[in-house]
Amino acid sequence: MPIGPEVVTTDEADVSDVALTTTLNGNVMQSARTSQMIVDIPSAIEFFSSFTRLRPGDVIATGTPGGVGFARQPPVWLEPDDIIEVAVEGVGTIRNRVVAEDADLSDWPWRPPGSTAVGF
Question: Beta strands of 1-120 (E only): which ranges?
Fold first, then answer.
């Protein structure tokens, strides 16, 4: 769940209809607009604030556009040295390089089918 490198307020960006794009090694994996969300952002804020106090800086995870790796046929898993970029139109792009986990994952109870990731 990438956050940053910028955080903007509602007076700086209208998020009611912006493009969200995720690329993996330069290939578009996800692309949608916030106007296509099942629940719009104001309704999500209204719902969550009905049972918890929201404060400046709180983050509401709304889900993700279609195209997630595990649901693809065949599945796509992040591997060390992959570059993942998430862009929000009018806000910016966050870019990260995937690194191998240093921890011993041999007893980790869940493994992606067919994964070649280090430690699996």
Answer: 19-24, 27-33, 83-88, 92-97
Question: Considering the domain boundaries, does residue 30 fall inside one?
Answer: yes
Q: What is the pLDDT of residues 83-114, one digit of tens each?
A: 999 998 988 899 999 998 777 777 777 766 66
In a domain, 86, yes or no: yes
Question: Closest by alpha carbon to 37, among 11, 15, 59?
Answer: 15
Annotate 20-50 with b (16+ C-beta within 10 A) or e (fewer). bbbbbeeeebbeeebeebeebeeebeeeeee
Token code pair at residue 5 = 């490198």
pTM of the model: 0.76
Helix or strand holding residue 42 (H, E): helix 41-49
